[in-house]
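User: Please predict the structure of the protein below. I'd like the answer in structure-token form so I can feed it into my own downstream comparison script.

Assistant: Understood. Taking the following sequence of 192 residues as input:
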Amino acid sequence: MTRKEQKEERRQAILMTALTLFVEKGFPDTKISDIAAAVPMSTGLLFHYFDSKETLLTELVKMGTEGTKKVGMTAKASPGVPADQMLSGFLGQLFAYAKDRPWVFNMFVLMGQVRRPGMPEEARRISFSVDSISSTAKLIKAGQKEGIFRKGDPKQLSLCFWSAVQGIMEEMTVNEDMKIPDPEWIVSILRP
């Protein structure tokens, strides 16, 4: 392994350790020294990778938003695919992806936490750059026109849908024995 590869491996270890601690202890209660000790490395060496706890959080949030965009968590209509099948298939892929990469559950939790007031503004701003609620509302509206989804405010229905997904991801973070739910259960909250 080259020195550059070793450095990147160490950087990833810091990020994943910080992600876990931020979720378990909360961002305000996690100290840089906690992260360094858990990696393990000296606090001084950790500062060679990230100059502050806020910078570390911002980097994690960037990873979260990039990952969200990459795996298509902003559900969009696909020509010829009914909206309910689109959402069900999407959730199946999301849950399978997260089950293979358990840190994804933590990332969901962190992204939810970062949006709250009192968190560092740069991280909050970046987290709001992804709007799954509005894009899913458009898909729900299309499904309502097809008679697949219940009547009601599409944005409110989308918010309920994503709240259910967020809750599942949070529970999967703390309950390793929890089985991934059938995506149809979640999509059914949208049906008449």
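That's the full token string. The first helix runs from residue 3 to 25.
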